[in-house]
Amino acid sequence: MEFDLPGFWVKVADDSDYAFAMECVEESAWNTLEEGQRTPGMREKVIAQARDQAVRIMDGDMPNDLYVLMTDGDERAGILWMGVMKHSWTGADMGWILDIFVAERFRGQGLGGALMRLAERWTIERGLTSLGLAVGAANMAAVHLYERIGMRVETLQMRKDL
Asked: What is the extent of the structural domain holding 35?
């Protein structure tokens, strides 16, 4: 797929990208937790859950495409993992960002926004009319990015520790 920032390009992931993609998925999952939730031993639980979910999706739970963000020097810089999901209330198919991740050393260069534009194109190319994702409330940088590009809150999931 075409990528709109110089110095970077995107490719469809292959077997050589699997370990990197799983590291991104794991880090994304860990970053969804609030600081108080990051207790000793919790990281292993979060990573195991993220891996299990990723393997189920890769094994066919839903149609999906995994892309790797590369530098012109062929260094992996992030991922965009897209799928098709049914809307919770209408049942209509919609594009769904399963994961979007930019490695820390590449952040602040507009790559997240560029990956979001790529997600929008992916969705439109499949004839879908909406795009969704889930984001942890503690990940304010991501929340602000999504709001800047026109996404809005549709559902809030809430929890109380007892």
From this structure: 8-148
